[in-house]
Amino acid sequence: MRDDEYYMRLCLSLAKKGRGRTSPNPMVGAVVVKDDRIIGKGYHKKAGLPHAEAIAISRAGSDAEGATLYVSLEPCCHSNKKTPPCTKKIIESKIKKVVIGMIDPNPLVSGKGIEELVASNIEVKAGVLEDEAKKINESFVKYIKTKTPFVILKIAESLDGKIATNTGESKWITGEKAREYAHRFRDEVDAVMVGIGTVLRDNPSLTTRLKNKKGKDPIRVVVDRELKIPISAKLLTQKSDAKTIITASKTASKNKIEKIKNTGAEIILLKTKNGRIPFSQLMKELGKMGITSLMIEGGSEIAASALKEGIVDKVVFFIAPKIITGRNAKPSIGGEGIRKLKDALMLKDVIVKRVGEDIMVEGYVRGR
What we know:
Elements: H1 4-15, E1 29-34, E2 37-43, H2 52-60, E3 68-73, H3 86-92, E4 97-102, H4 112-119, E5 123-126, H5 130-136, H6 138-146, E6 150-158, E7 162-164, H7 176-188, E8 191-195, H8 196-202, E9 219-223, H9 234-237, E10 244-249, H10 254-261, E11 266-270, H11 279-288, E12 293-298, H12 300-308, E13 314-320, E14 330-331, E15 347-355, E16 358-365
Parallel strand pairs: 3-4, 4-5, 6-12, 6-13, 8-9, 8-12, 9-10, 10-11
Antiparallel strand pairs: 1-2, 1-3, 7-14, 13-16, 15-16
C-alpha cells in the first residue's frame, strides 16, 4: 500500500507544472485517493484559474465522498480573491481526510483552513514532505512574509572567476547547456535585473528562448542611475509581452524620462545613497508591483552591491572549465571586497551538478 509521502511527492510533481505561471500565487498540486487508487488530480495553472484542490475534486466527481485529498499547500478559506475558497469545495464533496504538505504562510489562511476542515469533522494531517513543499514555493513564502521578491544571483564565470576578458569579450564563457538552464530560470522568475553597464556593452534582449516550448519573457529591470540607456536599446524597442522597468536617480533628466516613458517602459525614481540606487528600497518598490521573484544577471558591480546590501537569497554559479587570467579581466563580483574571512558570505544547502561541460553550484545565503 502506498504511503502519504508517495502521494505527496505526486502532488509536488504536479505543482511544479505551474512553475513560472502562477505568480503571485503559489504552485499547488492535489490528488484524490480512494482505496489506494487515484480518482482525481490537478494543479494550479495560473493566477485567476481554478485551484488544484477544486480541479482534483471535480475530476473525482461523486467518488470523492469518503476519499482522502492530498494537497501540497493548506487549502485556502478566504473569499476576497478571484476563485472560491477550497475548504468549501472540500467540505461539500464529503472528503473524509486531508493530508497537507505545508501550512499556508498567508495570514489570511495560515492554519485557518485546517481549523475549518476539522470543525467539519474532516481528519487533517499536515507537514508531510514539508521542507520539499516550502522549497518549490520559496519565492511565494518570502513574498508573503516580506512583500519583497525572492532574489537569485546568477553568474556565468570562468574557473578563475572572470566574466569577460581584458578586452571585454564575454560571449560565450559557458556552454550551450548552461545557457539553456539560464533561459529556463528566466522562464520561471517574474523579473530579471541587470546594470546599465551590461546594457551598454551587450545590448541584451533578456527574453526567454526554450527548445521544447514557448517561453515566458520576464519583466526586465535595469539599474541606470543617470539614464544612460539609448532609446534604440533592444530593451526599449523589442516586441515582448513583458515590460521593461528602468530605475534611476530622482535627479535624472526629465527630458530623458519622458523619452523612455514614450517607449512604453516604466521608470522608478529613487533617492540615491552614496551615489548608488539603494537596492533594499528598490526591492520594496518591485514588491509593490507584485514581483515575487527576481534574478540578477549582471554585471559585477550589480552583483557586489546586491550581496553587500543583503538582498540576495540564493546564488547560482555556472563555472566553465576555462582559465581567462589577467588582472584586467572582469571579475564576476566587483566592489571593494571584504577585509576579513569571517565576513565572507556563507552558503547553506549547497548543490553541485554537472551541466554539459560546465559545473553549476547552487546555494542559499546563510541568514536569509
